[in-house]
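ERR on first pass: missing label on line 2. Operator R.T. fixed the label and resubmitted. Corrected input:
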Amino acid sequence: MAGAGGGGCPAGGNDLQWCFSQVKGAIDEDVAEADIISTVEFNYSGDLLATGDKGGRVVIFQREQENKSRPHSRGEYNVYSTFQSHEPEFDYLKSLEIEEKINKIRWLPQQNAAHFLLSTNDKTIKLWKISERDKRAEGYNLKDEDGRLRDPFRITALRVPILKPMDLMVEASPRRIFANAHTYHINSISVNSDHETYLSADDLRINLWHLEITDRSFNIVDIKPVNMEELTEVITAAEFHPHQCNVFVYSSSKGTIRLCDMRSSALCDRHSKLTGPGPPLEVSEAQKVKARKLTDWKVFEEPEDPSSRSFFSEIISSISDVRFSHSGRYMMTRDYLSVKVWDLNMESRPVETHQVHEYLRSKLCSLYENDCIFDKFECCWGGSDSAIMTGSYNNFFRMFDRNTRRDVTLEASRENSKPRASLKPRKVCTGGKRKKDEISVDSLDFNKKILHTAWHPAENIIAVAATNNLYIFQDKVN
Amino acid sequence: MPFQDGPAGAPRSGALEGSEGRMFARGLKRKSSEDAEDADGGVAGLPAAPSYTLQRQSLLDMSLVKLQLCHMLVEPNLCRSVLIANTVRQIQEEMTQDGTWRVVAPQAAGRAPLDRLVSTEILCRSGREQEGEGDCPLPDPAPGQAPRRPQSSPWGLDGSREGRGGFQKSLDHIFETLENKTPGSVEELFSDVDSSYYDLDAVLTGMVGGAPTGPGLPAFAPTAAAPPSSTCRSDLGELEHTVEILVET
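pass 2 clean. output:
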């Protein structure tokens, strides 16, 4: 569905009315490739918003404390810290460049005054500590105010240094570097709910790390075929379950999702579940042993619709993103034309399918030709899991309300950037007469793609990355 | 970015006439029968089947070009390459069932050539891993920090001078064929089914890792239609640089 009918604010308290809040980034038409945003992520509280770009930089925005004298203006996000996370490297053995583009950022839950995040490029994951310094010590004994060392023999009296306030300085320092564990390109990182481990996934393997240990990782998934000629499927995304620290999920280029349990004792339960509906079977010891040799996962896959099969079927079924709901009961997958919501207890088909831009189905050949068909769109859940969001082309993004079954197409553009201006729903005309304010499919700008979006964990604030600009939208209801 | 698809409103039926089980149900340009540029002869009212074959051929050619125009200096996107290779396989399978895929080698070869229609071997050798060699990035808890891959040069200096010659021959072959783009030329592409088949596969799938060989490639770069992918770099300067590195290796 291309968009909600009509303009204006939909009636009903559940419907969200999105308004422009802020936009970050250069207005220049000429976009420097290094400035292209490649990942966006709120931290656990939503007070910090991190972006990574193709130039290997991380920019963190912090939400300002609400201003009591202006109660109607919500906290704005302003730059908190900027640092160079990854540099371009050259692999001399393969004669290949390793791009510095930040593929993913994931925050760690905050445990003390400092903030920690993981950022990764194609090959190396780094743990960054972002800390504030707003005091400095003065009155050292062994050095002058300008840092020159004093001769200890000249000191006749001792004093206690005192802390004096200084302008806030935010420092980012790399605390761990997790390198040399991925032969292929890393596409995902995910922090475990135990807050001690995390996984990193590349095209063919998934590794498990302990945050404290950089010189070893455990390989937990390996789909590399013995004979590489037989490679037909790659891993596209992976994520840990938000609450069960032994459960993670990964998606593939063939449109399958595998839910894995790292505890070997759970194999039997899953095996019994796989054999059909109904209560779990009693499994004998012999069968338990056999089950251990079977695949230790649930496989989620929707049967293909034979009537719509084409040469592009597989490509558009490739999953570009998989995210658990906050509740942990559902997961959402994004393929080229749709987002699907799956109940973790039902592998046979998704419980919901939402069309993102079905009007592109008849254009797949052209999209294959210009490589757009390989674009990897992300998706995200609203804080209450009642709404989901994903990006599209022409700087459009789509919101789906799971309760009201309504969806809307919105646009991130500078033209709609008056403060607190409501976003007008957009509509794509799929054929026949184009109505006023509609845009025809052939006029869509396929260079303006919204691949990365993020939703505040608790409030209705969204961050949308449009090439080199970051848009922040808020719900009108305060 | 305007699309080149057929005129708006051109009918797209689920199945093309006389072509059951075909894959081009959607997403393919349908030329209207009045299209004067129809290479099949331009006769109005021609059955759709020849047009389908042409379009399928065009998709195959496009896919092969895509596989070749992988980055020279940055490792190609493996997911994209695998998806394209799978698409090529599907086309080949269908063409084989049609009988339009004429393989010159004796049929005594049986299933073997079909199984190996498009090898992703070199394609996946982007990790620079050779078959049979241990390749784990990091084993279970063994401390080790050095890069694990002892890399040989992309085309294997270990006595594959012949192989290189084979690549060269195959490269020229491919480029000629793609330049001509005549229907049925794809059979020439895959006419060598024996050991040089792998060379062809390597060529098809693998400019991976930046090992263009010699004079064949510069001739190719200007003539082939490069997809407007910002990640493709067919700069001749970079090419020569890469060749230099190879030669020195």
